[in-house]
From TrEMBL, chain A:
Alphabetical list of Gene3D superfamilies matching this protein: Mur-like, catalytic domain
GO MF terms, alphabetically ordered: acid-amino acid ligase activity; ATP binding; carbon-nitrogen ligase activity on lipid II; zinc ion binding
A UniProt-annotated Pfam family: MurT_C
Keyword match RNA-binding: no
Biological role: The lipid II isoglutaminyl synthase complex catalyzes the formation of alpha-D-isoglutamine in the cell wall lipid II stem peptide. The MurT subunit catalyzes the ATP-dependent amidation of D-glutamate residue of lipid II, converting it to an isoglutamine residue.
Lineage: Bacteria, Bacillati, Bacillota, Bacilli, Lactobacillales
Record EC number: 6.3.5.13
Ranges for domain Mur ligase central: 54-190
Lipid II isoglutaminyl synthase (glutamine-hydrolyzing) subunit MurT C-terminal domain ranges (all copies): 319-427
InterPro entries, alphabetized: Lipid_II_synth_MurT (IPR043703), Mur-like_cat_sf (IPR036565), Mur_ligase_cen (IPR013221), MurT_C (IPR013564)
Species name: Limosilactobacillus pontis DSM 8475
Cell wall biogenesis/degradation keyword on record: yes
Record protein name field: Lipid II isoglutaminyl synthase (glutamine-hydrolyzing) subunit MurT
Automatic annotation (TrEMBL), chain B:
Pfam families, A to Z: GATase_3 (PF07685)
Molecular function GO terms recorded: carbon-nitrogen ligase activity on lipid II; glutaminase activity
Function in brief: The lipid II isoglutaminyl synthase complex catalyzes the formation of alpha-D-isoglutamine in the cell wall lipid II stem peptide. The GatD subunit catalyzes the hydrolysis of glutamine to glutamate and ammonia. The resulting ammonia molecule is channeled to the active site of MurT.
Active site: C96, H195
Subunit structure, interactors included: Forms a heterodimer with MurT.
Reactions the enzyme catalyzes: L-glutamine + H2O = L-glutamate + NH4(+); beta-D-GlcNAc-(1->4)-Mur2Ac(oyl-L-Ala-gamma-D-Glu-L-Lys-D-Ala-D-Ala)-di-trans,octa-cis-undecaprenyl diphosphate + L-glutamine + ATP + H2O = beta-D-GlcNAc-(1->4)-Mur2Ac(oyl-L-Ala-D-isoglutaminyl-L-Lys-D-Ala-D-Ala)-di-trans,octa-cis-undecaprenyl diphosphate + L-glutamate + ADP + phosphate + H(+)
Highest rank taxon of the organism: Bacteria
Gene3D superfamilies linked to this entry: 3.40.50.880
Protein name: Lipid II isoglutaminyl synthase (glutamine-hydrolyzing) subunit GatD
Keywords: Cell shape, Cell wall biogenesis/degradation, Glutamine amidotransferase, Hydrolase, Ligase, Peptidoglycan synthesis
PANTHER family the UniProt entry points to: DETHIOBIOTIN SYNTHETASE, LIPID II ISOGLUTAMINYL SYNTHASE (GLUTAMINE-HYDROLYZING) SUBUNIT GATD
Pathway(s): Cell wall biogenesis; peptidoglycan biosynthesis
Enzyme Commission code: 6.3.5.13, 3.5.1.2
Length: 446, 235
């Protein structure tokens, strides 16, 4: 390590210690300071760590958390970054504040798609894990193809790194790369050929630009796809989900290559995250029994979908930020065997996405087929979400533009189970209110 | 079963689906129900023929650059049918990319000129490193109606002499940021850059399209009840 890097690291560590000790914060500032003093600081960590980069639109955070748990079954030193610190500054902070290791450690980092080439410029990763690429309503003019190209700019700098990619995502099979590639995916069903619903992103065959067809589709454009025109099809899978045993909003039991696993979280999309972590684990030499132990030993890793007790109501707050995620959440809550009430809190600040059109891609029509006794809409754009529900044929809706009154309304819901879907800032506002009333701990967001 | 039955062609609905245009179909069905009409939707994509006699309404949405490029290559196969549909005064809603593709051409992300259908007399230029993004309100000078939407486009569209704007900009950018127009009307084809989606926030436009479709298809029926339908504000 150069003197400059050492000094920069020292300055960053000191600022982190100061911020952490006296200001109860500090995740990107120390990284920012360190980068100012030594823009090449990341390079100095390449001798100290083997790096795995986890990237993609949805599922980065849980895939990373699960992967760390899996790898800790075998490796002593596994470093990772906290949620939200997935850009350069946050990553630098992660490295400089890590406990000093005697031998080479393993860093498993969630990296924002656009930051993949930045990180790869300094540290050549041993492996990449790709989850999926969907359209995020935050920056819809950034297209799925552009996003993948950004990631590939990083891959180009690491042609020997093994790619562990979701084989059900056709984009990850669309370019010829020199890297070794391991694909994972779902292999639990096989149907006669069918088309995905028209309102699905990325249905064009990357080789001949005809519409792809499917023998199995899990959600969005993911599945066992093929092109009837040129023969392009899903690659061979190395690891696959072979059976879905039981799905509820809080638990998923499924089989990978014939062995049963349970994770303490609902949602088909989370099974993909577990499968990705499994595949990385196997690549890194972790045994299936160890992976099972990692998945099933401690449920806190799934903290994102905690159930909050509000005077006897079991309230689940779920962040929604793009159509694919929204539809997955709607699919998930549908698996609740108990009756439930449903609320949607919608804001349109920058962090929520300033265009609320994306809610129209949500399949709310399916809710109308359940006997949901009470709906509620809230947030600054409650009118938009109310119109969406109205046009889905839903009319038993309370409107509550004032979020401070939402907590009282929750208590009046007629069911024990209450699901609250919320855009990002609406979720933060609601959590703050719940913290003030001491239903959750203050600052409880990861 | 409703008394009336309309068939809607969702043009390239499996490729031009980036901006939640499907919401416009949901809104059309919602208002159609109140007008005693059902709507059957069929996606007409590449590899499909478009026969104008098969449809009473059409929706032409917007997509990503790549998909729009693929669509533009397929358009010559459907040009005659679409021209007949439009010139027969059948109602069409064209949003964003669909709007641009009805005109002579637009400029793609890499500066290339991408030919459109040229059925409507507008053309679309690009702007460097800028997009018109944000909430927008316009007012139609003839009806006095105000429309609300969300715009998000790089293209700058300039109308031809046979086209009327959908409205004049009250707040926002509109077609090109210069002449204060937004969207276009030609016969019963309504074009706009509005997302939101447009018909979910502006039920009056949905009503206009549906009335036109009904009157075309059932020339002898009395639609005075449908005309009297009050559209409640949703925005």
């Amino acid at each position: 390590m150069s003197i400059r890097s050492s000094f920069a690291e020292f300055a960053g560590r000191s600022s982190y210690w100061f911020l952490h000790t006296f200001m109860h914060g500090g995740s990107s500032l120390p990284g920012k300071l360190t980068l100012k003093l030594d823009p090449n600081i990341l390079q100095s960590f390449s001798q100290k760590y083997d790096l795995v980069i986890i990237t993609g639109t949805n599922g980065k955070t849980l895939t990373t958390a699960l992967s760390v748990r899996v790898l800790r079954e075998k490796y002593d030193q596994v470093l990772t970054n906290p949620t939200g610190s997935n850009m350069e500054q946050g990553i630098v902070t992660t490295f400089i504040t890590a406990p000093r290791a005697k031998k080479k450690g393993l860093a498993v980092l969630e990296v924002d798609e656009a930051n993949v080439p930045i990180v790869c410029r300094y540290i050549t990763p041993k492996a990449f894990v790709f989850t999926n690429i969907f359209r995020d309503q935050m920056d819809r003019y950034g297209e799925i193809y552009t996003t993948y190209k950004k990631i590939l700019r990083g891959v180009k700098l690491a042609p020997k790194a093994t790619i562990i990619a979701n084989g059900d995502e056709q984009l990850f099979h669309s370019k010829d790369l020199p890297n070794p590639i391991i694909y994972y995916g779902f292999n639990h069903e096989h149907h006669p050929a069918f088309n995905a619903p028209a309102n699905t992103d990325g249905l064009l065959c990357p080789k001949c630009q005809h519409i792809l067809r499917y023998h199995m589709r899990t959600y969005a454009g993911l599945g066992d796809y093929f092109c009837p025109h040129c023969g392009f099809k899903r690659p061979e899978l190395t690891y696959s989900v072979t059976k879905l045993d039981k799905l509820t909003p809080t638990n998923s039991t499924f089989e990978i290559d014939g062995h049963q696993y349970t994770i303490g979280i609902g949602g088909l999309y989370n099974i993909y995250n577990a499968l990705a972590a499994y595949s990385l684990g196997r690549f890194m030499g972790v045994a299936p029994e160890q992976i099972k132990h990692a998945f099933e030993s401690d449920e806190r890793v799934f903290g994102r979908q905690e159930i909050i007790n509000v005077d006897g109501k079991q309230v689940t707050i779920i962040l929604v930020k793009n159509p694919v995620g929204l539809n997955q959440v709607l699919d998930m809550i549908e698996t609740d065997p108990q009756p439930f009430s449903f609320a949607f809190l919608l804001n349109a600040n920058y962090a929520d996405g300033i265009d609320t059109s994306w809610i129209w891609d949500g399949n709310f029509e399916k809710l109308a087929t359940h006997q949901i006794p009470q709906y509620m809409t809230g947030g600054e754009r409650y009118k938009d979400i109310t119109t969406r529900l109205t046009m889905a044929g839903i009319d038993n809706v309370w409107h509550e533009p004032d979020l401070t009154k939402v907590v009282d309304k929750i208590k009046q819901m007629p069911t024990k189970h209450v699901y609250i879907l919320a855009s990002y800032t609406a979720m933060l506002q609601l959590r703050k209110l719940l913290a003030e009333k001491e239903y959750i701990k203050k600052g409880g967001m990861d | 079963m409703a008394k009336y039955y309309l068939r809607l062609a969702h043009l390239y609905g499996d490729l031009l689906n980036t901006y939640s245009d499907v919401g416009n179909i949901i809104a059309l069905r919602y208002y159609a129900k109140q007008m005693n009409a059902d709507i059957a939707v069929e996606v007409i994509s590449i590899d499909n023929q478009f026969n104008p006699n098969d449809f009473d309404l059409a929706l032409f949405g917007g997509g990503q650059d790549y998909e729009q490029l693929v669509v533009s290559r397929d358009l010559p196969n459907k040009k005659d049918g679409l021209a007949r549909f439009i010139n027969d005064n059948k109602p069409m809603l064209a949003i964003c990319g669909g709007y641009q593709l009805l005109g002579h051409y637009y400029i793609g992300a890499n500066g290339e000129k991408i030919p459109g259908l040229g059925i409507l007399d507008h053309y679309t230029l690009s702007q460097d490193n800028n997009r018109f993004i944000g909430d927008i309100t316009i007012k139609n000078p003839e009806t006095g109606q105000e429309y609300h939407g969300f715009e998000n486009h790089n293209g700058r569209t300039f109308l031809g002499k046979d086209e009327q704007p959908l409205g004049m900009v009250v707040t926002g950018h509109g077609n090109n940021g210069e002449d204060h127009t937004e969207g276009a009307i030609y016969k019963s084809t309504y074009c706009s850059y509005f997302h939101g989606p447009i018909l979910t926030r502006n039920g009056e436009i949905a009503k206009t399209l549906l009335l036109r479709a009904l009157k075309n298809k059932y020339p002898d029926a009395d639609f005075s009840n449908q005309e009297a339908l009050k559209v409640k504000p949703t925005f």
